[in-house]
Amino acid sequence: MDAxxxxxxxxxxxxxxxxxxxxxxxxxxxxxxxxxxYCDFHVAALRPTVMVDYVAAMRSEIDQxxxxxxxxxxxxxxxxxxxxxxxEQWEQLLGALAEPFSGxxxxxxxxxxxxxxxPQKIEAALKVGVxxxxxxxxxxxxxxxxxxGRRHDARRVEEVHRWFEELEVPRTSLDLIVGWPGxxxxxxxxxxxxxxxxxxxxISLYHLSYESGTWLHAMRERGGLKPLLDETxxxxxxxxxxxxxxxxxxxxxxxxxxxxxxxxxxxxxxxxRGEYLGIGSGAASFFNGARWKNRPDVAAYISADGSPERIxxxxxxxxxxxxxLIMLQLRLSSGLDLKNFRNLTKYEFYELxxxxxxxFKEKGFxxxxxxxxxxxxxxxxVLDSMILQFVEDAEKRLNART
Length: 402
What we know:
alpha/beta, pyruvate-formate lyase- activating enzyme, Arc Repressor Mutant, subunit A, nine-stranded mixed beta sheet, three-stranded antiparallel beta sheet
């Protein structure tokens, strides 16, 4: 039996989830050897003594969360670059999570960069119950890797996935980026061929974005590089999606595809507006109707010794719940659950957004079926503008009632 065929739940035929993946636990490891040119995440430089102290502080926070009675269904260790941790800290962090939480899990994912993962780290993770690795490939074009500031080459990604297969990692995922400057159809064909050889269970296909403060944004503003036209990005994305579909991948979220039941249960919980706690500097949480994040400051996090300062605290108000459901659930292929929307907001979706809903359905961007409103293939191309319109509709309708 192929170890990768392991499936801990049923997503049904249209991306719906018949298993609760809430609550989740997100663990942030911010360290990177260098910052990628497109990255605006909270990251920190690799410094051995700091990593030792940071993992010690994380272990204290994990212990406090466990003592509170929190029992996650999923764990996701992200970054930054979790696999950049030295072997000793890697094992300490995994062990601290396994001891209180492994019995309740349906999924445990670790993000890994190709240049810093190795068989010893993979074996240590499998030993404590990690059952999914997500690898940041981004592209198999050396030109694209260089432009995005990646520290690996294409051959390294395939080597890492050979290790995954030899060590029988149950499930694997690849991150790819479409729309980088200079990308052409030949590079897409190369990426698709590599995916077919590697044969992961999951693909995250992201459009390159020029976030303020990144190297790519600065270069674009100076005229130092020429972004692809939006139409070209959409064409390239659709070429990717068509090729992945031919390989058996099914799109279950606007940027995510799976086969063999390989959905990301942790991320599915986010899109369904499930609860989660975040551990580590800068990690976000949503629990008991409140959102907050730990202050994104590694030194302050270490000093707090497991009790980090919480910032951006807010309770979800009436409009917040409406906006969150629209923004999150319309990303899914299964779409917005109308009954769930009514139960959580006390409003009918039609009541708030009838005009725009009718317009988008007439244009073929949305369909309504089985109690859901969902985007069509064409609708996913204009999803951001549809979501913005629905949010504006809801705001106007609520304001008219006050």
